[in-house]
User: Which sequence fits this backbone?
């Protein structure tokens, strides 16, 4: 089959790398892509936010399947346009993607479906925000209602900081603080049914020891040896199936990946957030361990023909993100990167890179993610950090405590 992947980040590089390994995938295209993706797929220029342009490209390339990576194209209706063009698409409709695009919509769906999540209030005025903060108490959790690339959430003990964030957004969701370890669980959905990938964990704060600002994610690992027995089954039963059922009832069948961000609280797993796409960098480690060929799996979702649960190999995968100087505030771009060659058990995924005068240069906040694997977490981590230490990018930084 011929496949076109939309996007240009680390997630899309990981997707393309795995698609390339699927013998069923004969031709692989990506738009707009990045220099890492160029090693495995043919790149094309496209405005990923323009549904008609993406559909026209898919038609011109005569692809059988389009895989939409990031949330913004999904919310913009790219999957709708591709399906209208008669081409199978992995990715929910613009309306179904509102499960990520609006925190208020997600809360309403969860309430209707009886899905466990933090108690929350939707606030549009400073008075409403102040009342909600008083109701839930500290630590305060204030979320921008719209898409904010993982940066719209403030968790703080300081009431003034919480109020200031609410005032800076048009509409916020103020919610109860959920205590407990966080887990990312992704479910592949075909519109009526869903199958799980294995649990992974992401490290959202910029610096070691979970300090510093929230980011898109500074590293990840899978599997989670400490995860409670039966967690995946419980999340599928109590969260994923009720949610996609509720979306179907509303005429919004969900085809793509439902990303469940969980807190494992003393009262069981509760939803912190839903996303309508693969998580980055969790996808890098999950796809490293996935044994079921990816092209067939994504095609089955797009055509409503999902079969048995995907199969994962043993062993562990760890990824460490290398971020540009001043990420996440105002990342420095345009610096030359060297030392990108794979080792026996580690390789580099490109996220924010570009080609300039024959060299690879930084072009985004999260520049690279280095994936290491091995029979256990300890060796996977060692392999990842060993390759990280060979990479040179002026001013860059990474966390040294991923997958402890
Ligand atoms: P989100 O963008 O919703 O994933 O939020 C980013 C991060 O903020 C999460 O990964 C959590 O660490 C934290 N967070 C969000 N909501 C809550 C909550 N209700 N309780 C505790 N922490 C939260
Ligand atoms: N790693 C979390 C996210 O992709 O939002």
Assistant:
């Amino acid at each position: 089959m011929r496949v076109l992947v939309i996007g240009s980040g680390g997630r899309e590089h990981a997707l393309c790398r795995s698609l390339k390994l699927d013998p069923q995938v004969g031709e692989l295209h990506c738009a707009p892509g990045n220099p890492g993706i160029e090693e495995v797929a043919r790149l094309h220029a496209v405005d990923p936010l323009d549904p008609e342009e993406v559909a026209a490209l898919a038609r011109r390339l005569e692809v059988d399947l389009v895989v939409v990576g990031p949330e913004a194209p999904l919310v913009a209706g790219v999957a709708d346009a591709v399906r209208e063009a008669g081409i199978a698409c992995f990715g929910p409709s613009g309306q179904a993607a509102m499960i990520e695009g609006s925190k208020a919509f997600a809360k309403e769906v969860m309430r209707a479906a009886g899905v466990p999540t933090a108690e929350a209030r939707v606030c549009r005025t400073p008075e409403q925000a102040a009342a909600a903060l008083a109701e839930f108490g500290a630590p305060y959790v204030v979320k921008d209602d719209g898409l904010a690339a993982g940066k719209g959430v403030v968790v703080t003990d300081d009431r003034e900081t919480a109020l200031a964030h609410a005032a800076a957004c048009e509409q916020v969701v103020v919610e109860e603080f959920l205590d407990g370890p966080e887990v990312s669980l992704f479910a592949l959905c075909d519109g009526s049914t869903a199958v799980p990938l294995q649990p992974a964990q992401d490290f959202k704060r910029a610096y070691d020891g979970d300090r510093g600002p929230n980011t898109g994610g500074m590293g990840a690992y899978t599997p989670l040896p400490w995860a409670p027995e039966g967690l995946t089954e419980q999340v599928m039963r109590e969260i994923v199936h009720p949610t996609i059922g509720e979306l179907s009832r509303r005429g919004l069948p969900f085809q793509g990946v439902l990303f469940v961000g969980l807190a494992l609280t003393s009262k069981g797993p509760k939803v912190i957030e839903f996303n309508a796409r693969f998580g980055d960098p969790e996808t890098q480690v999950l796809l490293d361990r996935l044994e079921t060929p990816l092209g067939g799996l994504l095609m089955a979702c797009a055509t409503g023909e999902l079969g048995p649960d995907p199969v994962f190999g043993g062993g562990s995968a760890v990824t460490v993100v290398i971020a540009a100087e001043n990420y996440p505030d105002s990342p420095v771009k345009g610096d030359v990167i060297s030392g990108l060659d794979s080792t026996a058990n580690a390789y580099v995924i490109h996220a924010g890179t570009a080609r300039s005068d024959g060299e690879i240069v930084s072009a985004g906040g999260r520049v690279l993610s280095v994936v290491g694997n091995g029979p256990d977490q300890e060796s996977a981590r060692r392999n990842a950090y060993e390759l990280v230490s060979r990479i040179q990018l002026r001013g860059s930084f990474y966390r040294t405590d991923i997958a402890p």
